[in-house]
Design goal:
The protein is mainly β. It has strands at about 10-15, 20-25, 30-35, 40, 50-55, 60-65, 70-75, 80, 90-95, 105-110.
């Protein structure tokens, strides 16, 4: 049975998407979304508590301060973009969309 209350006491970011789904970046258990009166936990990709962004195509993008990269949700599937080869910094602190549709990640790294 799905949880009926938010399953974690700390949510770093919350985003109300244009389709009515509400996304929560939860510490320790991944992410959660609320839709049609129920919470659903998505925990197989790591935690994404730092930023949640919706692009012009209604895709949801989530950033992590736990070195998990960026998680993309296209409405049916999740795609994880990790920090390999330095393309995405270790800590994703913000996300934005460029005029050409590219997604830009603001990042930080440990020095």
């Amino acid at each position: 049975m799905p949880p009926t209350v938010l399953p974690h006491s700390y949510s770093g970011k919350i985003h109300a998407a244009s389709n009515g789904r509400i996304w929560f970046g939860n510490a320790d258990i991944g992410i959660t979304y609320y839709e049609d009166g129920e919470f659903t936990i998505v925990d197989e990709y790591g935690t994404f508590t730092e930023t949640i962004f919706e692009d012009s195509e209604q895709q949801i993008w989530m950033g992590s301060y736990a070195a998990n990269g960026v998680l993309q949700y296209d409405g049916s599937e999740f795609t994880k973009h990790d920090t390999l080869d330095g393309v995405i910094g270790e800590y994703v602190t913000s996300l934005a969309e460029a005029p050409n549709g590219d997604i830009i990640a603001g990042t930080a790294v440990d020095q």
